Amino acid sequence: MDFPRIELELLEDLTPPAEAGFLRLIRRRYRAHYPDGTASAAFVYDLVDRPAIDAVVLVAHYLDHDGVRRVFLRSCVRPPVAARDPSRSPHPERDPLHGTLWELPAGLVEPSEQSPAGLLHAAQRELAEELGLSVDATAFRELGASVFPVPAMIAERLYFFEVTVNPDERGEPSLDGSALERFGEVRALALDEALELCRKGTLMDGKTELALRRLMERHGSRRAP
Question: Residue 94's pLDDT is what?
Answer without folding.
Answer: 64
